[in-house]
Amino acid sequence: MTPKRLKDKVAIVTGGAQGIGRAYCLNMALEGAKIVVADVNLEAAKKTATEIQKKAGKSLPLRQTCQTSPAPRLWQGKRWSALAG
Ligand SMILES: NC(=O)c1ccc[n+]([C@@H]2O[C@H](COP(=O)([O-])OP(=O)(O)OC[C@H]3O[C@@H](n4cnc5c(N)ncnc54)[C@H](O)[C@@H]3O)[C@@H](O)[C@H]2O)c1
After folding, report:
1. Which ligand 1 atom sits closest to the C-alpha of 66?
2. pLDDT at 54
3. What's residue 72's pLDDT?
4. N or C: fewer beta carbons within 10 Å in the chain?
5. Average pLDDT, 10 consecutive residues per value, the chain (85 residues)
């Protein structure tokens, strides 16, 4: 069984819908984190978030075009209440 080292943590994974990002999403979810799948491709993000919900735990898809600067204000807004508890 995977150790729950990330219990009570929330991970925002940019480019999380596919490829390397998706792998991080799934593995951090298996370690107990709640996952925000942030990606320009919302449909793919929804698919990955649904996969996480089935296999591991809580996850939300988020359409987000990520930039290195300035840092996006991903953590603001009431959407995050869905990951509480
Ligand atoms: N796959 C490899 O072996 C490998 C090796 C070294 C480096 N890289 C680099 O790592 C990165 C990811 O690789 P990958 O294979 O997972 O790519 P990928 O194309 O499979 O997945 C990238 C994901 O990021 C999303 N995305 C792209 N631009 C975005 C943006 N501005 N904001 C939010 N989401 C965005 C895409 O929609 C996609 O879901 C790339 O920059 C790639 O060049 C990949």
Report:
1. 32
2. 97
3. 54
4. N
5. 90 97 98 97 98 96 82 58 67
CB 12 within 8 A of CB 36: yes
User: Where do the structural domains in the chain lie, given as residue ranges?
Assistant: 1-67
Is the link from the previous residue into 70 a cis peptide, with omega within 30 of 0? yes
CATH class label, 1-67: alpha beta
The amino acid sitting at 19 is G
In the structure encoding, which two tokens stand for residue 49, read together? 């978030």
Distance CA 73, CA 51 (A): 25
Number of residues in the chain: 85
